[in-house]
Structures are given as structure tokens and as C-alpha cells.
């Protein structure tokens, strides 16, 4: 009997990482991964709950999977991830074809859950938030051909920004032990990976207190950076309120740490930042940017921002635009505020009209496009180091990324996937650069 699985992943890099965890587990159990859900015996939908849009996407995908099950009653369908955590058993009522609901903190119990699936012992809901993140069981060959990948170093968030559902669905902050993290990174490197991004909702609050030793985030970075074969190290996401000087200095003395930081600012008005409970002011954020650029002049800075938070006036929005003009981010992820049930912001007055939110988002995105293009154009003629990740969509070209995380496509006869090459940038576009390798 072939046993096939299909995993649909929505949302952030942490979900990509969790899906890899599940896939490795299933491959170790003798399952094969298939590309179409119609051929699967087990479908897992790894969901996101951070905004209304991904939530709707998850329901509509689940609806389509449910109709496949009508023609194949042996199919098992599971919803995992943040939306599974948020909705719990209610999902089973709403979607009778659904068999499993597993929150992100329960993935370590997948062995037990898997045995239940195998015994066909009914429906299963697992949404405890107290468990530690699991240690993946290495699966030989799984990461073969991947040049870049992730290692989670911590999970959860203690910040409770007023709009955010993450603390409710990923639980409180918990850091993984350096031993586990190093072992996982070593396994990835032994499979041929060359770049590792450390993941956490708030990586700069990483803290491991062992019996004798205490590990801060910079100490962990330093240790990991020395692993054999690691060409590049990155991390995401950082919170402006606890970006330490030590971390800033890490960029200077850790040679393979990419000069890129993702530092969400969310809003440019102090009044809104306070309502968001972000724990910093506009001035403090700008000071940090200054400090980063003074210490590391070539650092790329990217960010997240939201428009239409409850009570956001035109003046508040103008302050957000003003901050964007001032900082000139390399790129920016921008969102319309969306109510998340149970958060503080959901109960706030002054909700902003849909059309106002859309028009603010358009204005903001147009501004950022100009900035991104201007910054990319300034790279024309420069020689940039690119980690080659594989063939590009265009026949005969290769693709990779700069340390600043910009995509570069290029022609080359002698470049090898997984190597660093210096590329001369010939043309810059909004979402990518094009160049030629200095052979
Ligand atoms: N509405 C809109 N955007 C949100 N984000 C988080 N919660 C919400 C929400 N309720 C955005 C923030 C965060 C990114 C991951 O998603 O900008 O940094
Ligand atoms: Fe959400 Fe704020 Fe935590 Fe980020 S820091 S996950 S925005 S609560």
C-alpha cells in the first residue's frame, strides 16, 4: 500500500520550518511526498492566523480538500499551525471532513498523533501551548539540493503587541538549547546547505540558561558562525525594543553574518506606537537605524508596517510615510490592519474604513516601490557577492542572493550552485538585479 502525503504551507518562514519538520517525520516513517493532494493519503494544511486574509485562504483550501475526501473516504485531513491553535475543536464541527487539529506547540507529539492516525482512532485535537519546540529527527537526503534553510532558535512571544495574535497561538517565549540548535545546523550543513537563517518571533530575546552557562543571542551567533561549511548566517525577526549593542557589534566581528536586519517598525506615529504597545518611540527607532548604519554602513534594513490601525488619523499615516522617506528601507512588507479576535486592538474604538485602509496601503506601497527601485539602481555597476542557489526561471541563467537578500540573476558558465561568486550588476529592477559573473 503506498502511503503518500501532501503538505500545504501558508504563512511565514516558521511555518515552512514546521512543515519541514512534519515532512521529515513522515518520510522517516516510510511516507512519500506527492505534488498533488488528489494523490495523497494524508493532507496537512499548515495555517497562518496573523491576518484575516490567510485565515480565509486556509478555509477555502480546506473546503477544496474536503471535496477530495468525499471521493476518497480513506483520506486523512489535518489542519496544523496557528489557525488550528486559534480555532481548536470548533474546526471539527465546522468541517466534518477534517480529522486532525494540531497547534504549533504540539508538533513534538506528532509521533503519538501519527499512531492514532494509523489505528484510525477517530478525530484528534491537540492545542496545548506549554510544550517545548521539538527537535527534528534528521532524515538523510531530505535537504539535499537546498542551499539555504532555517533553524528555529526560539518559539513564542511575550510582547503582546495590541494587534497581534501570535502570543496567543505560539505561546510564551521559549529558547532551544544551544546543543540542539548546533546539532540541527550541523546536520543541514552535512546535507550541503550553505546558508542558515535563525528563526524566532523575537530572536534578540534568545536566552539559554543551562546549569553552568548562560547563552545570549550574540554568543549563539558566534558559536554557529564557526561551523564548517557555513558560508552565510542570517536571523529574523528582531524587535526594536531589545536590539542590543552587542548584537550590532556582532555584525562587525562575525565574518559570515550577512549585513541585513529585518526590524519591523509598524507605525511612524508615537500615539499609534503607544496604542500598539510596541515599547519604543519613533525617535528611538530612528536612533537605532542611525546606530546600525554608523556601525555597519552597508547594512540592508527591511521592515514591516501596518496601515489603518484603530484611530490612525491622516496625520498619523503621514508620520508613517515620513519615516519611510527618512529611513529608505531596502524593502518593506506592508499590511492593512485586520482585527484578530481576543487581542486588545480588536476592542478599540476608531476602526478605520476599508477603503481608507486600501488607499493608504496603495500610497505607502507606491512610495516604497520608488525607494526600492532607487536603491536597486544605485547598485548598477557594483560588484556584489552572490550565493548561487540554483537555475533561474530564464533558461541558461543562475540565481542567487546578495548578503542584503536581494535576488540576482546572472549568466555564467563556470559558477557552481552553493558557491559564492562576485557578480557585476548590469541592470536593476524592482524585485531583482541582473548581472554577470566576474569569472
Ligand atoms: N493586522 C495586520 N497586520 C498584522 N501583523 C500582525 N498582526 C497584524 C494584524 N492584526 C503584521 C505585522 C507583523 C507581520 C508579521 O504581520 O506587521 O510584523
Ligand atoms: Fe506579534 Fe509583537 Fe510578538 Fe511580533 S513582537 S509576534 S508583532 S506580539
What does this molecule look like?
The structure is a single chain. The protein is an alpha/beta fold. It has 4 domains: 3-126, Methylthiotransferase, N-terminal domain (Rossmann fold, 3-Layer(aba) Sandwich), CATH 3.40.50; 143-258, Transcription Regulator spoIIAA; 259-378, Transcription Regulator spoIIAA, CATH 3.30.750.200; 383-437, Beta Barrel (OB fold (Dihydrolipoamide Acetyltransferase, E2P)). The protein has helices at 13-28, 52-70, 82-87, 90-94, 110-118, 166-170, 178-190, 217-225, 245-253, 270-276, 282-295, 314-327, 354-377, and strands at residues 4-9, 32-33, 42-47, 76-81, 100-102, 124-126, 148-152, 154-155, 174-175, 195-199, 207-209, 214-216, 232-236, 260-262, 300-307, 331-336, 383-391, 397-402, 407-411, 420-428, 433-437. The strands form 6 sheets. A 6-stranded parallel sheet has the order 2-1-3-4-5-6, sandwiched between helices. α12 runs parallel beside α13. The longest helix has 24 residues, at 354-377. The mean pLDDT is 95. Residues 157, 159-161, 164, 166-167, 201-202, 239 line the site of iron/sulfur cluster.
User: Which CATH architecture of the largest domain would you pick?
Assistant: 3-Layer(aba) Sandwich
Distance between the termini: 51 Å
Strand order of the largest sheet: 2-1-3-4-5-6
Present as ligands are:
5'-deoxyadenosine, iron/sulfur cluster
What's the β-strand tally? 21
Radius of gyration: 22 Å
Number of alpha- plus pi-helical segments: 13
CATH fold category name of the largest domain: Rossmann fold
Helical fraction equals: 25-40%
Uncertain stretches of 5 or more adjacent residues: none
Shape: globular
Percent of residues in β-strands:
15-25%
Amino acid at each position: 500500500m503506498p502511503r503518500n502525503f501532501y503538505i500545504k504551507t501558508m504563512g511565514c518562514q516558521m511555518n515552512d520550518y514546521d512543515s519541514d519538520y512534519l515532512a521529515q517525520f513522515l518520510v522517516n516513517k516510510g511516507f512519500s511526498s506527492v505534488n498533488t493532494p488528489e494523490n495523497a493519503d494524508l493532507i496537512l494544511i499548515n495555517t497562518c492566523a496573523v491576518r484575516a486574509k490567510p485565515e480565509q485562504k486556509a478555509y477555502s483550501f480546506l473546503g477544496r480538500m474536503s471535496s477530495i475526501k468525499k471521493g476518497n473516504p480513506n483520506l486523512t485531513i489535518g489542519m496544523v499551525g496557528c489557525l488550528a491553535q486559534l480555532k481548536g475543536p470548533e474546526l471539527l464541527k465546522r468541517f466534518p471532513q477534517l480529522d486532525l487539529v494540531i497547534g504549533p506547540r504540539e508538533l513534538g507529539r506528532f509521533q503519538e498523533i501519527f499512531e492514532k492516525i494509523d489505528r484510525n482512532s477517530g478525530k484528534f485535537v491537540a492545542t496545548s501551548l506549554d510544550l517545548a519546540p521539538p527537535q527534528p529527527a534528521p532524515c538523510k537526503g531530505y535537504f539535499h539540493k537546498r542551499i539555504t534553510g532555517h533553524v528555529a532558535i526560539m518559539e513564542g512571544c511575550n510582547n503582546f503587541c495590541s494587534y497581534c495574535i501570535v502570543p496567543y497561538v505560539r505561546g510564551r517565549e521559549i529558547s532551544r538549547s544551544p546543543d540542539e540548535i548546533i546539532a540541527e545546523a550541523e546536520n543541514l550543513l552535512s546535507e550541503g546547505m550553505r546558508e542558515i537563517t535563525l528563526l524566532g518571533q523575537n530572536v534578540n530575546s534568545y536566552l539559554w540558561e543551562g546549569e553552568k552557562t548562560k547563552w545570549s543571542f550574540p554568543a549563539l551567533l558566534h558559536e554557529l558562525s564557526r561551523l564548517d561549511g557555513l558560508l552565510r548566517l542570517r536571523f529574523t525577526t528582531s524587535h526594536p525594543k531589545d536590539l542590543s549593542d552587542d548584537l550590532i557589534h556582532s555584525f562587525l566581528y562575525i565574518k559570515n553574518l550577512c549585513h541585513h536586519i529585518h526590524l519591523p517598525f509598524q507605525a511612524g506615529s508615537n500615539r499609534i506606537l503607544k496604542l500598539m504597545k510596541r515599547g519604543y518611540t519613533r525617535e528611538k527607532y530612528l536612533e537605532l537605524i542611525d546606530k546600525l548604519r554608523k556601525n555597519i554602513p552597508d547594512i540592508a534594513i527591511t521592515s514591516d508596517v501596518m496601515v489603518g490601525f484603530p484611530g490612525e488619523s491622516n496625520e498619523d499615516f503621514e508620520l508613517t510615510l515620513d519615516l519611510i522617506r527618512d529611513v529608505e528601507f531596502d524593502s518593506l512588507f506592508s499590511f492593512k490592519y485586520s482585527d484578530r479576535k481576543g487581542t486588545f486592538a480588536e476592542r478599540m474604538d476608531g476602526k478605520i474604513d476599508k477603503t481608507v485602509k486600501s488607499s493608504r496601503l496603495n500610497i505607502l506601497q507606491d512610495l516604497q516601490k520608488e525607494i526600492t527601485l532607487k536603491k536597486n539602481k544605485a547598485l548598477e555597476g557594483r560588484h556584489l557577492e552572490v550565493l548561487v542557489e540554483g537555475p533561474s526561471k530564464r533558461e541558461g541563467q543562475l540565481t542567487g542572493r546578495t548578503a542584503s537578500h536581494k535576488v540576482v540573476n546572472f549568466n555564467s558558465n563556470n559558477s557552481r550552485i552553493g558557491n559564492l561568486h562576485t557578480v557585476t550588476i548590469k541592470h536593476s529592477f524592482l524585485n531583482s538585479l541582473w548581472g554577470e559573473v566576474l569569472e
